[in-house]
Design goal:
- By secondary structure, the protein is mostly beta strands.
- The chain is globular, with a radius of gyration of 25 Å.
């Protein structure tokens, strides 16, 4: 969890979430200047009165003004309006550096000109965590340390290590440069080592920075020595060593008005997969392919229709402004993969990807989103690998502090040439009350119902919410699904805008309603970061 979250009990409330509206929509004109007022986590008066507030500020690099200015795609002399100001505010909030962001336009002394005022207040970006466990006679331990605003530049560095008494361990460090050479390029370098082997990755990405941005491109290099695990009843039943080396890149172009954008993309990638022998009780029956080389080329077309943006609180966050984009997203990729497997030979395989996403506010204070995704790979006209996923969510603000939430998600996988794919179901992915990865299959259906209640109780900087929930899940191989496996429970949500931004600490107490052989039917406690499901997934 975020550093000093418990210490927040001793600190005063330094800020509240801003009103989820923009200023008057009539302010527009030629931009004269941009004035930026950046503030630390706690203001000077609070830091002077509260030693812990001063300590929190001292543990934090205040975001530099240049970080905000680099994100601007407009310059003095350009025409600006409230729509552009609102988009810039959303983009700054999405950086994850700020507790609050406010951008507004004000008339300048000269008629037809406006000034932009940007006000930001930082959030605590230093994080650390650690813990231990004792499960099935195995002792586990781990820790993590990170900073996501290094030197006030928005750069991120994270280090972690975890291990257990079975001599299984994994450690790694990752560094992200938010603005490479003060550009819109972002670079990430990661290094890792484990009992399985070494890992390395590098990514250079130039994303679409605003709605009218005409281009995006990027590429990655990766090498990983890992093991793919297969589970039965929550325990590892088979492990397959895999050495993977890959390089890929993409180019994307966008055209059209900001509310109705079309995109065209080209991607190219190469992957080498070297497999070891499967071990474990399930190992002898597991199909492991020969070493494989893949070369992929794909052409993607997509459409983004934006109907509106909404600023809300209380759906997935506590006190923090959450930006919802409403509208339609659709994309299709047509490609080909050259696959060469040792002992089998090579083949050209057509590949297809489809995605459809839709978000709307059909009634006031009712937000819904639906997404559907599928991939398909053919060989000799027959399907040899495919995936499918369909999800839908609804969030209804039935009263000022109450939100009713529903989530339904179905997934299916099938792979006949590469390493087999499986889906797990349990505490770690939406079925609270049952052990992590307790159920396994190639088809999975999950549903969650939650009543989220913002208590409006704030103790110093901490904001508290309560949840009552019902979970159900079905899983199986092929078209036969076992279940339902159901659970009920209650939970506590803790947020702190100045210390954690939109991140929520989740504490759930769950009771399974269906018996599982060999497992307890009593209450179980889980502690994690983030909601079980949220708007968009």
């Amino acid at each position: 969890m975020r550093c000093l979250l418990s210490a927040a009990l001793l600190l005063p409330i330094a800020l509240r979430a801003q009103d989820a509206t923009t200023s008057g929509a009539s302010v527009q004109g030629r931009l004269r200047e941009v004035r930026i007022a950046a503030a630390d986590i706690f203001d000077a008066d609070t830091a002077a009165k509260r030693p812990l507030a001063a300590l929190v500020n001292g543990l934090h690099w205040q975001t530099r003004e240049d970080v905000v200015r680099i994100e601007m795609w407009f310059r003095p002399g350009d025409f600006v309006d409230e729509r552009l100001a609102a988009e810039f505010e959303r983009n700054l909030r999405a950086l994850g550096l700020f507790a609050t962001v406010n951008v507004r336009l004000v008339p300048a002394p000269v008629a037809g000109e406006v000034d932009m005022e940007v006000e930001t207040r930082d959030r605590l970006t230093l994080s650390f965590g650690g813990g231990g466990s004792y499960v099935g006679g195995v002792t586990g331990y781990g820790f993590a340390l990170g900073e996501s605003n290094l030197f006030g530049l928005g750069d991120r560095i994270n280090a972690s290590f975890r291990g257990n008494s079975e001599d299984e361990w994994r450690g790694g460090v990752a560094y992200t440069d938010l603005h490479v050479f003060d550009s819109w390029h972002t670079a990430t370098l990661r290094l890792g080592r484990s009992d399985d082997g070494d890992s390395f990755g590098f990514e250079l990405l130039r994303p679409f920075k605003h709605l009218a941005d005409p281009r995006s491109h990027g590429g990655t290099l990766a090498y990983d020595e890992t093991e793919v695990d297969y589970f039965r009843a929550g325990e590892t039943a088979a492990e397959v060593p895999v050495d993977r080396a890959a390089i890929d890149g993409f180019l994307r172009w966008g055209t059209g008005p900001v509310h109705d954008r079309r995109f065209l993309g080209l991607s190219l990638g190469y992957e080498r997969l070297d497999y070891g022998l499967a071990t474990g009780p399930l190992g002898p029956s597991l199909r492991v392919p020969g070493d494989t080389r893949n070369l992929r080329v794909g052409l993607t077309g997509s459409w983004q229709l934006v109907s509106a943006f909404r600023k809300v609180e209380g759906i997935d966050t506590l006190g923090f402004v959450q930006d919802l984009r409403l509208g339609l997203d659709a994309s299709a990729t047509i490609g080909v993969r050259w696959r060469d497997e040792v002992g089998v030979g090579d083949a050209l395989q057509p590949e297809f990807r489809l995605r459809l996403g839709w978000a709307a506010e059909p009634l006031p204070d009712l937000f819904t989103d639906v997404d559907a995704r599928t991939t398909l790979r053919l060989d000799g006209g027959a399907a040899v690998g495919w995936t499918a996923a369909l999800g839908a969510r609804a969030f209804a603000a039935v009263a000022e502090l109450h939100t009713l939430c529903a989530n339904v998600a179905y997934e299916a996988v099938d792979e006949q040439q590469d390493l087999p794919l499986e889906l797990t179901l349990g505490e770690d992915n939406g079925l609270r009350g049952y052990p992590a990865r307790e159920f396994v299959g190639t088809r999975r259906l999950r549903t969650n119902l939650e009543h989220r209640f913002d208590t409006d109780v704030q103790i110093l900087t901490l904001h508290f919410g309560l949840v009552a929930f019902f979970d159900a899940g079905w899983v199986g191989f092929g078209n036969d699904l076992d279940g339902p496996y159901r659970s009920v429970g209650v939970g506590l949500r803790v947020g702190s805008v100045p210390l954690a931004g939109g991140t929520v600490l989740r504490i759930d107490l769950a009771k399974p309603l269906d018996d599982v052989p060999g497992e307890s039917d009593g209450w179980s406690l889980s502690v994690s970061v983030g909601q079980v499901f949220g708007f968009g997934g």
